[in-house]
Amino acid sequence: DQQVKQNSPSLSVQEGRISILNCDYTNSMFDYFLWYKKYPAEGPTFLISISSIKDKNEDGRFTVFLNKSAKHLSLHIVPSQPGDSAVYFCAASSSGSARQLTFGSGTQLTVLP
Amino acid sequence: KAGVTQTPRYLIKTRGQQVTLSCSPISGHRSVSWYQQTPGQGLQFLFEYFSETQRNKGNFPGRFSGRQFSNSRSEMNVSTLELGDSALYLCASSLAPGLERAPRFGPGTRLTVT
Lengths: 113, 114
Hints:
The complex is a heterodimer.
Chain A: E1 4-5, E2 10-14, E3 19-25, E4 32-38, E5 45-51, E6 56-59, E7 62-67, E8 72-77, E9 86-94, E10 97-103, E11 107-112
Parallel strand pairs in A: 2-11
Antiparallel strand pairs in A: 1-3, 3-8, 4-5, 4-9, 6-7, 7-8, 9-10, 9-11
Chain B: E1 5-7, E2 10-13, E3 19-24, E4 31-38, E5 42-50, E6 53-57, E7 64-68, E8 74-78, E9 87-94, E10 104-105, E11 109-113
Parallel strand pairs in B: 2-11
Antiparallel strand pairs in B: 1-3, 3-8, 4-5, 4-9, 5-6, 7-8, 9-10, 9-11
C-alpha cells in the first residue's frame, strides 16, 4: 500500500506565479516530512523539511505546510522560476527509523516562461 | 564540502552476474542508506548502515546486500542479477542518529541488466 501519495503526476505554472504541490500520507507514525527536487540522471536534492510539531516551515521561496489532522502536506514555491522545473518528491519518516524515507511517486513541475 | 559520491555512474551487466556499487558519504556523515529508483516502483528504501552495522532493511530479496567500512564508505552488492534489477541506485548520507534527519543524496549509479 502506498503510505505517501502524490496524486498529481504533473503541474504546469506560469513563471512568477505560485506553484503548489500536494502530498498525502496514511501512516500516523510519520513525524518528519521532506521535499526533494530531482532532475533526470541526478540524485534528489533536499529542499525543505518539517517536523510534526510544526505546521509551517519557510526557506526563501519555499514554504511547506503540514496539516496533521488531514494527513496532508503541501509545498508552495513563490515566485516560480523556469529553473524550478523538475520532479518534486515528498518523503516521510518516523522517529523509530529516522533515516528510512518513504517516498511519494513524484510530481513533474513545469514552469512556463 | 564535497557531496555524496557514487561509483561507477553507469554500469551494464548480464543477467546472472553480480555487481558491487560504491558510495562515499559527505565528510562527517556516518549513516549511509541506499535506495532503488525504477519507473514502476518509484524510490524504494533498500537498507541503512551506521557504525558498520545494518540498522534498517527494506523489502528486498537477500540478493541485495551491503556493508559499511570504518571510514563510513559503503558498498552494496546485488548477486544473480535479474532484468528487473535495472534501475538507478541512490546512496544517501546523514549525520549520526538523533541529529539532522534530511539525508543528502548522491548522483546515483545507473545499472542496466541485459
